[in-house]
Amino acid sequence: MQTRPVSAAGNPVSSNITYLRDHPGFYERTHALGERMRASLTGICADLGIAATAADFGGVFSLYFTESPIRGYRDLMRNNEAAYVAFHHRMTDRGFLMLPLALKRNHISAAHTEQEADRTLEAARDVLRTIRDDGILTA
Q: What pTM did the predictor assign?
């Protein structure tokens, strides 16, 4: 049986490396959107009087329902899991896929735009308000 070499287009790792090489602003853009998501979620929670910490790095963001900073795994154990899962379920119900499992993170991809970040943050404000008003944060 004769084998043929796999082209770069057929290899996902090679395709990703090629994409990153051809789009040098990828990291700056995704990191900026990630920082925007973290800062905006922090502001929304402050506006709504919700004790939460937006964390992670670069194009990754998570909202943990705990007042203290997240420095390690033990800090994450203080997360209000019921509020975390409710937030993710309700965001997914609105069309924003966030895995409703405790301690899962959200990732910015090359496909995400500023407008999508705006829509996500608008939905997050509404969802956080309902979680607060439904009493889930005190559970």
A: 0.83
